UniProtKB/TrEMBL annotation:
Pfam families: Bac_transf. It comes from Planctobacterium marinum. The lineage of its organism: Bacteria, Pseudomonadati, Pseudomonadota, Gammaproteobacteria, Alteromonadales. Keywords: Membrane, Transmembrane, Transmembrane helix. This is Multidrug MFS transporter. GO terms for molecular function: phosphotransferase activity, for other substituted phosphate groups.
């Protein structure tokens, strides 16, 4: 056996696969917040309590514009696993006569997290449910399925994962959440780097007490509608 073959064999024996490394880091950080079973139980109870609001939202969406009530989008979760994130549809379909593409001048932020403060694609109902985060409520189903938690990092887009791989890696060490530090600290008013920092802070400081504080801060943040559009 020549030296080259021997070196390759040694490299194969001691090489640690990337997914194993990532899983070991996830295990090290672990989940230190409110227990999963309690969060899923709260999600089930929440769906039951707000079911009249959900039904009304579905009705108004169907009355205003054509298309499905729900919108699903692929997001990246724990250990890089991709899942379908549920939301109420808040935009016109491209086939709808009212649909209009936003102009470049409509954007108030460039880059991966491009935002349009007055996005013409958003319906009137969509503006309201986005303002008060009602469009996010179907994600309680994601919590029940085990894709998400009630509290955690923001579930990021696949484009964010592909373009900011190294920066977002810490966010993959735990499941994303319906609410979190980013959601109660400005939401769309924050840029991508600030969002990353909020998520990293949550992962490093995660505790039951922090989860409780975030839950308590979520209600005034939603009612105040700061950074929601």
């Amino acid at each position: 056996m020549n030296n080259l073959a021997l070196n390759r064999m040694v490299a194969m024996l001691f090489m640690v696969p990337q997914n194993v490394t990532q899983q070991s880091k996830a295990a090290r950080f672990g989940h230190k917040g409110i227990p999963v079973i309690l969060q899923q139980s709260a999600a089930a109870l929440g769906l039951l309590v707000i079911s009249p609001l959900l039904l009304l939202t579905m009705l108004f969406i169907r009355m205003e514009s054509q298309g499905p009530v729900f919108f699903t989008q692929v997001r990246v979760g724990e250990n890089g696993r991709r899942f379908h994130c549920y939301k109420f549809r808040s935009m016109y379909l491209k086939t709808d006569p009212k649909y209009r593409e936003p102009e470049p001048s409509d954007s108030d932020r460039e880059g991966v997290c491009k935002k349009y403060y007055n996005d013409p694609r958003i319906t009137r109902v969509g503006k309201f449910i986005r303002k008060y985060s009602i469009d996010e409520l179907p994600q309680l189903l994601n919590v029940l399925k085990g894709d998400m938690m009630l509290i955690g990092p923001r579930p990021h887009l696949t484009t964010e994962y592909d373009n900011y791989d190294r920066n977002i890696m810490p966010r993959l060490y735990c499941k994303p959440g319906l609410t979190g530090l980013w959601q109660v600290n400005g939401r769309a008013d924050t840029d991508f780097e600030q969002q990353l920092q909020f998520d990293k802070d949550y992962i490093q400081q995660q505790s039951i007490w922090l989860d409780i504080k975030i839950l308590l801060a979520t209600v005034p943040a939603v009612l105040g509608a700061k950074g929601a559009y």
